[in-house]
Amino acid sequence: MIDKQPADQPEIILTGDRATGPLHLGHYVGSLRQRVDLQNIHDQTILVADMQGLTDNAHNPTKVSSNILNVVADYLAVGIDPSKTTICLQSQLPALAELTMYYSNLVTIARLERNPTVKSEIQSKGFERSIPAGFLTYPISQAADITGFNATLVPVGDDQLPMLEQTNEIVRKVNSLAGKIILNECRPLLSNASRLPSTDGKNKMSKTMGNTINLGSSEKEISAAVKSMYTDPTHLRVEDPGNIEGNVVFTYLDAFHPDTSYVNELKEHYQRGGLGDGTTKKILEECLQEILRPIRKKRAEYLGDKAQLIEILSGGSQVSREKTQRVLFDVKDTFGLNIL
Ligand code: TRP
Asked: For 50-79, what is each residue's pLDDT tens digit?
């Protein structure tokens, strides 16, 4: 599950999620499972990116504030262990905001406008000419997140590679100004699981589209989501040969079913004809129910004890505040601003 990179050398890992909604199976496959493994080997911090969440939600801040503890409960429910992984809240680390200010002077508007991920987000969010400045500049703030911990390894999806590239450009500029290495360049750690499609097989996963299965989805919601999954529209009768390519049920079976050879048999049978979508969906549903049942239960328990969640987040933020403060000191030093 851990990609190509050497996993035996301890690294400083920083990763994060925008707190704009509960986490779903796409997060689980793409990053959460991997983080559970990584925490045993590396010095891992996970940042709940509430400020980054606001960069396109300032008009509706409860979308962010109401999801902070949900995201923390999601982490804990899948097995992220706060005694191994530091979980912290971005807005509680003022050094990150300060670093963002210093780094802003090292990045041009043209460079920000060239970031392909930001570019496509601007399009899909329909910002046109009214792009919030915070949104255009969030890659700078993300560079502050990463360098604030002096991270060497950043587990992310491939859409985040442009952020890491911009981070390393900033790192090189700061180091060159300092005349010595004060910030580490970071490497991405891509999950080798391919991106999980939404249940409709067409659109990006989104809560408003109702095409996701969340970690906290109820049994009924899971069942309804699997029943509505996109399969092969040309597979009309059970006897007909069916296509597995683009068939979301099979993509999910590949991602979640523990028995690969059984899934391969199902695929062959489906392609030959004689295997109905009702049956494949039933198999997938059982498998997802089994995986999500204990996660949902733990998630509900954690959410039932908000004081504990807050304690975990505030403990992690306290540790992180000190770490990021030290990096800020070095960066301020580079600009000759530690004079008082
Ligand atoms: N931009 C990331 C996302 O949308 C979230 C994020 C914020 C992040 N800060 C980070 C990821 C630092 C990795 C490192 O998923």
From this structure: 999 999 999 999 999 999 999 999 999 999
**Closest C-alpha residue for ligand 1 atom 3:** 17
Q: Whose CA is nearest to atom 11 of ligand 1?
A: 16
pLDDT digits over 172-208, tens only? 999 999 999 999 999 999 887 778 999 998 878 877 7
Sheet holding 12-18, edge to edge: 85-89, 43-49, 12-18, 153-156, 187-190
Q: How far is the CA of 5 from the centre of ligand 1 (A)?
A: 20
Cβ 277 vs Cβ 249: under 8 Å: yes
CA of 142 to the centre of ligand 1 (A): 6
Helices 306-334 and 138-148 meet at what angle, rounded to 10?
90
With a CB cutoff of 8 Å and minimum separation 6, the contacts of 124 are: 204
If you take atom 13 of ligand 1, which residue's CA is the nearest one? 15
Distance 45 CA to ligand 1 centre (A): 12
Q: Which residue has the tokens 């009924």?
A: 220
